[in-house]
Design brief:
InterPro entries: AAA+_ATPase (IPR003593), ABC_transporter-like_ATP-bd (IPR003439), ABC_transporter-like_CS (IPR017871), ABC_transpr_LolD-like (IPR015854), MacB-like_ATP-bd (IPR017911), P-loop_NTPase (IPR027417). With 270 residues, the chain is of the alpha/beta class. 36% of the residues lie in helices and 23% in strands. The N terminus is likely disordered. It binds adenosine-5'-triphosphate.
Length: 270
């Protein structure tokens, strides 16, 4: 991605936290000593225990770990969907803990893209209308050239007039991916985005997500249970008991599986 394309999409100039000249290695989001504690007293659960992690620009990061290790909590805290108990969560240079509700809502709307396991498409709208809906709500005009490129990248050019029930699961999730990409958010968070898809459709969606990182310079952070899905990422961050226990670059499905097995073995012996 070039400087000019990054600048084009932000109506009011570059995001405060987004350097105009994107470079690998710059943090799109950063947690520092982030803790999240649910409940009080005997029912207290430390879901995140002083997490420090960077999610770098134009990188595809997968978050993995056993059930209950804190993956979704970390994603929700970083995306401003849940409050944190202590520490810091930043999107670019913006400290989420300092934002009041209205500003947080705006930040989620303007700077973050979401892809969930359920596609969350509106059934009465066409594919194209679903893709542009968040921008329509925000009163922002889609950048036509960018939109065309996103639609081509996710392979939906001949499906734009279809409604969700006329599309396969994989195609519906591709609409959701395009919807997340359309406004060129600083970061896209995905919570098990291929959890509802068969392996072929899942591979397609993951391929498009990876393309969006490689070709469009998008930053993606995805929670997954699936080592094959994680292998599409540039990096895997492993959580256990609310802590980061490992960080793997250029993962392979076998390598991720081995690492997961070693956590399971440790959990059984501890
Ligand atoms: N709203 C909540 N209230 C109380 N405890 C919660 C809440 N949400 C999550 N937890 C607890 O926090 C811990 C981390 O949960 P989280 O959902 O982040 O794990 P996860 O790694 O995403 O799990 P899974 O893979 O099963 O989705 C768990 O022990 C969970 O029970």
């Amino acid at each position: 991605m070039t400087t000019s394309t990054r600048q084009q999409h932000t109506a009011g100039g570059p995001h405060p936290g987004a350097p105009a000249d994107h470079a690998h290695g710059v943090a799109a989001a950063r947690a520092t000593d982030l803790s999240k504690i649910y409940g009080q007293g005997e029912t207290q659960v430390v879901a995140l225990d002083r997490i420090t992690v960077d999610f770098r620009q134009a990188e595809f990061t997968a978050i993995m770990g056993p059930s209950g290790s804190g993956k979704s909590t970390l994603m929700h805290c970083m995306a401003g969907l849940d409050s944190i108990s202590s520490g810091s969560a930043r999107i670019g240079d913006t400290e989420l803990t300092k934002l009041k509700d209205k500003k947080l809502t705006q930040l989620r709307r303007d700077r973050i893209g979401f892809i969930f396991q359920a596609f969350n498409l509106l059934p009465t709208l066409t594919g194209l209308e679903n893709i542009t809906l968040p921008m329509d709500i925000a009163g922002r005009k889609p950048d036509k050239e960018w939109l065309d490129r996103v639609i081509r990248t996710v392979g939906l050019t001949d499906r734009l007039k279809h409604r969700p029930n006329q599309l396969s699961g994989g195609q519906q999730q591709r609409v959701a991916v395009a919807r997340a990409l359309a406004s060129r958010p600083e970061i896209i968070f995905g919570d098990e985005p291929t959890g509802n898809l068969d392996s072929r459709a899942g591979a397609e969606v993951l391929g498009f997500l990876r393309n969006s990182v490689r070709e469009l310079g998008q930053t993606v952070v995805m929670v997954t249970h699936d080592p094959v899905a994680a292998a599409y990422a540039d990096r895997v961050v492993f959580l256990a008991d609310g802590r980061i226990v490992d960080d793997m670059a250029e993962p392979t499905a076998d390598g991720v599986l081995e690492r997961m097995k070693s956590f399971d073995a440790k959990a059984r012996t501890s």
